[in-house]
Amino acid sequence: MKRLAGLLGALVLVLAACSSTDTATEPAATEAPATIAEAQFLQDHGLAGMETAELIDHLDRLGGAERPTGFMASIRPDELVFSDGEQELAVDMPEDRFYLSVAPYVDQTHECFYHSLTTCQGELTDQDLDVRITDDDGEVLLKEEVTTFDNGFVGFWLPRDVQGTIEVSYDGLTGTAAFTTADEGATCLTTLQLT
Question: Model confidence over 67-90: pLDDT tens digits?
Answer without folding.
Answer: 999 999 999 999 999 999 888 899
